[in-house]
Design a protein that fits this description.
The protein is of the alpha+beta class. It has 10 helices and 19 strands. It folds into 2 domains: 5-142, Creatinase/prolidase N-terminal domain (Creatine Amidinohydrolase, Chain A, domain 1), CATH 3.40.350.10; 148-360, Alpha-Beta Complex (Creatine Amidinohydrolase), CATH 3.90.230. It has helices at 5-20, 31-38, 70-76, 89-100, 114-124, 138-143, 148-170, 178-191, 253-272, 280-292, and strands at 25-28, 53-56, 61-65, 81-84, 104-107, 131-134, 196-197, 202-205, 226-231, 233-235, 238-239, 242-247, 304-306, 313-317, 330-333, 336-339, 343-346, 349-354, 357-360.
Length: 372
């Protein structure tokens, strides 16, 4: 096997497969997990159409793909044996597992559709002794802590989106539609050399800002109202994610107050993001400030989430299923207040957890100080 950044990941994955599961081999079909372990960059065209999957045991690693992607796979995944799939992966798996001497096959239960699971189960029945067993997010857990190559990629992605947002804000003016601003951002990302946007940009002005995941519409930007800009790019496969709320001209008095509360909550959350801290504590610190100000019911989502090859991955800064934060994790800190019929304010930084705390990867300084 060549000396590549994927060899170490494969070694760690095999060790975890052996220690944490009863499986003899693993079948990896989730696109980000597939890329993480192999380097194969193809996307899946749709949920029921795959560009390939990995089959890994203690000694062999195979990349199973069809004729459309064979050359790409050979170029991007040199550590893997490339196997061409000609009649459905479900018909190929039994013979490969028999060659490997594998019985129980681990699969990604959050990725495989019921229909594909049924086909594979039927194909294995009577041919392979063990059948299928869920992997329980084995690769996703590995992806939570970034290695040095990933950190460098995320630093670059964060700097790129920060520069785009800075330029975008400088060119906002009344009368532009939300949709036009979103399209402009996408064009800027392409011109800057990004792989693409990490997610459809959110541009939510006035009352639309009360929708945390508003879809840009034909509403025109107006002076004084809050404008929520939530944007990210994908660069070398890695995502960035940041949000600023801006005003054209003098901000409306109510939203001066709301903005100041959200900013205070964000700073409180950032202060608690450090190694060894439970992931629910930053959320609690930010949520307490918003609740004490009387806006608790208007902050409904988690404080943040992990970012990497996917825009949303572990860990979550949330009261649900807390974990211990570690060095190398990349998370967002994004409190918000959303007032139905009026508008909203959200402020988001993407940060790397280091020994000394949270280091901001989205260095864009467009913040207001409305105190006093």
């Amino acid at each position: 096997m060549t000396d590549s950044p994927y060899k170490k990941r494969l070694d760690i994955f095999r060790s975890r497969l052996r220690e944490k599961t009863p499986c003899d081999a693993a079948w990896i079909s989730e696109p980000h997990n597939r890329r993480y372990l192999s380097g194969f960059r193809a996307d899946d065209p749709q949920i029921n159409e795959s560009s390939g999957s990995l089959l890994i045991d203690a000694t062999r690693c195979l990349l199973l793909t069809d004729s459309r992607y064979v050359l790409q796979a050979q170029d991007e995944a040199p550590d893997f044996e490339i196997i061409e799939v000609k009649n459905g992966v479900h018909n190929l798996l039994p013979s490969l597992l028999l060659e490997m001497g594998a019985g129980l096959l681990g699969f990604e239960e959050d990725q495989v559709t019921w229909g594909l699971h049924h086909k594979v189960s039927q194909a294995l029945d009577g041919k392979v002794s063990g059948g299928l067993s869920p992997l329980g997010g084995l690769v996703e857990a590995m992806r939570e802590v970034k290695d040095s190559d990933e950190i460098a990629a995320m630093e670059a992605s964060g700097k790129l989106i920060a520069s785009i947002v800075t330029e975008l804000i400088e060119n906002l003016k009344p009368g532009l539609t939300e949709r036009k601003v979103a399209w402009t951002m996408e064009g800027m990302a392409a011109e800057a050399g990004a792989d693409g946007v990490a997610f459809p940009p959110i541009v939510a002005s006035g009352s639309n800002g009360a929708l945390p995941h508003a879809v840009p519409a034909d509403r025109r930007l107006q002076p004084g109202e809050p404008i929520v800009l939530d944007m990210g790019v994908r660069l070398n496969g890695y995502c960035s994610d940041m949000t600023r709320t801006v005003f054209l001209g003098e901000a409306e008095p109510e939203f001066r107050k709301v903005y100041s509360i959200v900013r205070e909550a964000q700073l409180a959350g950032l202060k608690e993001v450090r190694p060894g801290v439970r992931s629910d504590l930053p959320d609690a610190a930010a949520r307490r400030i918003i609740a004490d100000a009387g806006y608790g019911p208007f902050f409904g989502h988690a404080l943040g989430h992990g970012v990497g090859l996917a825009t949303h991955e572990g860990p979550r800064l949330s009261p649900l299923r807390p974990v211990t934060l570690e060095e190398g994790m990349v998370v967002t800190v994004e409190p918000g207040i959303y007032l139905p019929g009026k508008g909203g304010v959200r402020l988001e930084e993407m940060v790397l957890i280091e020994a000394g705390g949270a280091r901001i990867l989205t260095p864009e300084s467009h913040y207001y100080d409305f105190r006093g």
